[in-house]
Amino acid sequence: MYSHIMIGTDDIDRAKAFYERVLGVLDGDLQVFENENKTGHRRVFFIQDGGILALTQPIDGQPVSTANGSTIGFACNSGEQVKEFHDVAVEAGATPVEDPPGLREGGAMGPLHLCYFRDLDGHKICGIHRSAA
Fold first, then answer.
1. CB 123, CB 65: distance < 8 Å
2. Is residue 133 pLDDT above 70, yes or no?
3. Are strands 112-118 and 51-56 parallel, antiparallel or unpaired?
4. What average pLDDT score do residues 107-127 get?
5. pTM across the whole model
6. What is the DSSP string of the chain?
7. For residue 25, what are the contacts with CB-CB under 8 A and spacing of at least 6?
8. What is the spatial distance between Cα 12 and Cα 35, in angstroms, rounded to a whole number?
9. 4 touches 54 (CB < 8 A)
């Protein structure tokens, strides 16, 4: 259903270093590509297991803003990986939000291991692992 997720950053080099470190926790071959569009705005693309996360400098020249109520979720392979994903992000400068990483009751989805943090630009990120019921 989804092609990619693109988020803005005011410091593309800092954001690239952050996501290289954090996404490196997840399993799979992480590929990183950079490009510059005809107006000189830089973008970085992270491709892993068919998913694409893109970082961009705002093309309109305005500062980055984040969407209140939006969350970008990354699939993890275990509850331990959810915690590591969170801990590496916080070590790299992310701000933890909501409850600490751990097991939550997922209602109809069954038990979930979750973590939440805000990246360096304030985007809300989630690590999630759906546990066997």
1. no
2. no
3. unpaired
4. 92
5. 0.90
6. ----EEEE-S-HHHHHHHHHHHHTTSSS--EEEEEE-TTS-EEEEEEETTEEEEEE--TTSSPP---TT--EEEE-SSHHHHHHHHHHHHHTT-EE-SSPSEEE--GGG--EEEEEEE-TTS-EEEEEEE---
7. 81, 84, 85, 88
8. 11
9. yes
Copy the structure tokens of residue 9: 């950053």
Name the phi and psi angles at 38, rounded to 5.
-65, -15
Average pLDDT, the chain: 92
Q: Across-strand partners of 8?
A: 56
Q: pLDDT tens-digit profile of 74-83? A: 999 999 999 9
pLDDT at 54 over 60: yes
pLDDT of residue 50: 87
Read off the pLDDT of each residue in 89-104 and give the average, rounded to a whole number. Answer: 96
